[in-house]
Amino acid sequence: PSPSGALAAPEGFPLLAHEAAGEGGLVYLDSAATTQKPACVLEAVDAFYRTNNANPHRGAHRLGGAATEALEAARRDVARFVGADADEVAFTSGTTCALNQLAYGLAGLLRPGDEVAVSLLEHHSNLVPWLTVAKLAGAKVRYLVPDRQGRVPDGEIDRAVGSRTRIVAVSHVSNVLGCVQPVERIVRAAHDAGALVVLDCAQSVAHLPVDLHALGADFAAFSGHKMYGPMGTGALYARRGAASALGPLLRGGGMVEAVFEQGFTFKGFPAVLEAGTPNAAGAVGMAAAARFLEALGMEAVHAHGEALARRMAAGLAAMPSARLYGPGPDGAEERCGIVAFNVRGVGADLAARALDRRNVAVRAGAHCAQPLVRHLGAEAVCRASTGVYTSERDVDRSLGAVEAARQDAANLMTSAML
Ligand code: PMP
């Protein structure tokens, strides 16, 4: 732990070390969009290119072997990190890529009248692919509607998952509200109905201990860059036994067993989903990030994010000018380091810009979750999201900036009236 109260010293993240000079240094509260990278991740990527660079799985030469071993070691690390076995994990370019591979790969299961159940909290990446394949198949997308805290209640699961449901695709943790969905309950209901379950773990893997075997999901998707790894990396998990239901979306080199003039045969999972040259350096960096988080301990990471979110939510709830969305500061429900809010009478974009002038980085908008933000009765919201480098002092500075943003808006109104 760092003296500032962060779980991992910000000085270990070169960008933060560079930005944090002086009193008013950067407070980065946009980790749900992408996290900053620790030096160990940057060094792992650099070392791959300096010492192991060759095309994995292709060359008979020594370096080809080293690159293959680096990629497969990375697969073992990433799999262990989410409670899976290495042969259940395919590398992808991120969550969006994995979810598209899943939607198109499972589309053959859908018949007219079948249903795909998603929640109203989904990121567009776990919505648009299902809307697309459902339409192509004549199937319907049904929604699990969350309560005011952003959690899908049991009654909703029973209402929306039934005999017509073929696939249930839900996010583990909302990227807007930070609330944790009852995924064990959802998996049980889906399996009782004979449906497959896809989990969008893009946020959860950075915030919670995730054990995919224990959760029982059939498939899962997550990104390296949201868990302190490089951009352009991610993984698709397929439970052993479920992988055979999944056809490939991308076709080409590396995923075929034999190719003839008029046909071809596929390799098994995970190779069948890894057509083309993999981002091996990225995978190595993602594995370094997984080891970095394991060393911190995911229980500690979760407790840290939860405490910061409660502090932020409590500060906002005490401000008459702020409107908080999702879980309140004292709620018993499990949550992660993500807090959504608005400043009354100030557009989310203007509020975020006012925070930016005070060197506090938050994101404003619909956060690629338009149906949810509409359901919240807003057009846009501000989102503060923490990382392992975030401290209580950062949260307090951002609360001060929210108060100042409201004051800016009031001053602007007064000067307009004069
Ligand atoms: N799902 C969720 C819950 C997310 O937060 C994100 C990223 N904002 C995605 C999917 C898409 O991830 P990526 O952009 O890394 O593909």
Automatic annotation (TrEMBL):
**Signal peptide annotation:** none
A Gene Ontology annotation in the biological process aspect, one of them, is: cysteine metabolic process
Instruction: Supply the source organism for this entry.
Output: Gordonibacter pamelaeae
Cofactor(s) recorded for this entry are: pyridoxal 5'-phosphate
Q: Which family does it belong to?
A: Belongs to the class-V pyridoxal-phosphate-dependent aminotransferase family. Csd subfamily.
What is the official name of this protein in its record? cysteine desulfurase
Please state the Enzyme Commission number of this protein. Answer: 2.8.1.7
Instruction: Name the enzyme's class.
Output: transferase
